[in-house]
Amino acid sequence: MTEYAPKGLFGLLTPQANTTAELEVQILCPPGYAALTARLTSDRPTMEDRLMDYVARMDDTIARFANAPIRAVGFACTGASYLIDPQVEQRSLDTIAQRRGVPVVTAAQAITDALQCLGARRIGIVSPYGDTLHDAGMRYWAARGFEIGPVERLAGQEAAFHPIYSLSGNASRAGLGALEGSDVDAIVILGTGLATLGTLLGQRDRGIPVLTPNLALVWAMVTALSDAAPSRASLDPWLDGAAWAKRYHDRVAV
Q1: Fewer CB under 10 Å: which end of the chain, C or N?
Q2: What is the pTM of this model?
């Protein structure tokens, strides 16, 4: 137990230039829980190469926490999971978890668990990725057993510091708005670097569950730290914002 995380402390791994995941996780964390962040780093030239490097060096990144009393690790980089065979990724995560003595959960796995708790089969997707990563992502979600419904792609500015991280919350709102009225069981807004919390609060009375990687990952971390199994009952307060709306409004009220 630590002073500011009496209910549990978890490690958060996030890409080096991601300006959103760490901040959204701070807002989403309920009182009594907290995350320590380690940045995933790579000097590879392309985004896809860097993502694969993050996975290959994940155990080394976790080692940066030293003997901090973290009880779980969340990998806040959805796109990396698209580029690796799911069975290979799971074996790697299991090996790291056994070595470190704590569960390791990817954002993609957290989304999968949440969709399964919802009983969702057909999903709509808001995608901020370029062509290569987008196509890999669609294959990934189909391989997970989900029927891909309507897809809305967001266009980033290539001249910006990063084509995804530089997108504002308006982009996620527009993407979600384009899928309004879709015949789907749930909608997933992809990208841990895409600002989404204001978008989620604007959606909560429309009926279709909306998930994001950061929300799903914090839910998964709190579930793991509570020694509970994923369930619809535990997920619902996260979806309607009851668990975190006030912290969001306090953060943006400047």
Answers
A1: C
A2: 0.93
